[in-house]
Amino acid sequence: MLVHSRKGRWAAWTVFFLLFLPLFAMPLLVVVAASFATNWSGAFPSGPTTRHYDAALRGDSLQALTTSLVTALTASVLALAAGTWAALSAAALRTRGRRFHRILDALFMLPVAVPSVVVGLAVLVAFSKPPMLLNGTRWIVILAHAVLVTAFAYQSVSAAVARLDPVYEQAAASLGARPGYVLWRVRLPLLLPSLSAATGLCFALSMGELSATMMLYPPDWVPLPVQIFAATDRGSLFTGSAVAVVLMATTLLVLLAVSRIRTKASYR
Description:
- This protein has helices at residues 6-35, 51-56, 59-94, 98-113, 116-126, 138-163, 166-174, 179-207, 211-216, 224-233, 237-267.
- It is an all-alpha fold.
- It has 2 domains: 1-49, no CATH class; 52-267, MetI-like (MetI-like fold, Orthogonal Bundle).
- α6 (138-163) crosses α8 (179-207).
- The model has no long low-confidence stretch (mean pLDDT 87).
């Protein structure tokens, strides 16, 4: 920590717990507690049970979890490819003029600057007629998720590209390496920790996306956040809490796996 004195560290930890528990930890703990309860009429839940997890791990909920995983993974890969390409292009444009770089920044950050429901409506309008008719298919959901998370991939990779030492690329070029070889064997390996971090961020954001998804999802492609909303809308709050815990746990496991990849990449 930046605080070196013992009293200062204790004060910093005290403030951290006073702010962290009420704002972040308590809502999560309430959801976890509700997922094991059958009744909550007082200050604490009652009637502990695991029956809600039986419903959360089978049938429609399990199918929705698979749908969310496929959607998030596919959207993350698309976003990472587009964001990496744009970040590398922006770095090349930066040497020619800051105006083009700022325009590219603004274009990629535009989906973040507007509500996600607006992005969902834009995708619905744009792809509801030929020649690109995606309405009613899973691809319109995946496309909307990719549009929403590409900005985060672009920002993450762009920041890493700006910190790259050009000495490695210059050394490879001086030895006769072609630009494509320098990109695949020098630049991208150096960017691997940032690429894995961007992948994890895109995946987590896609797993929790609801607003745009509600406007686009077809009946045979229902992600897990929609399933949670439907359960709570029917009054099944405890079952919805169990499904939400499954969503959090799955996202956390994937992020831990991505973190291990990032650690190994940083070590290399």
